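Researcher: We plan to redesign the surface later, but first we want a full-length starting point. Tokens attached.
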């Protein structure tokens, strides 16, 4: 069975500033307490459509490791 999670929060900051924080994999641990580390598959490449990242962390006490791919990218609103 696939796992699907969602959440929302209102942040009082410009959209462009939030986008810069959210779309950089290495910054995920700064705002997502479940993520312990994240890195781009190609560290020197800019994040864009098709970019891949490796993420590890904990969710509900379980260790999770995943590879993600950017499937939509329209700065500064869609990532």
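Model: Full-length starting sequence:
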């Amino acid at each position: 069975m696939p796992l699907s999670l969602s959440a929302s929060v209102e942040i009082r900051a410009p959209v462009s500033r939030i986008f810069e924080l959210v779309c950089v994999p290495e910054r995920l641990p700064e705002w997502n307490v479940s993520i312990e580390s994240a890195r781009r598959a190609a560290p020197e490449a800019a994040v864009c459509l098709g970019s891949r990242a490796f993420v590890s962390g904990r969710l509900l006490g379980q260790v999770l490791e995943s590879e993600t791919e950017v499937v939509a990218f329209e700065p500064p609103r869609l990532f």
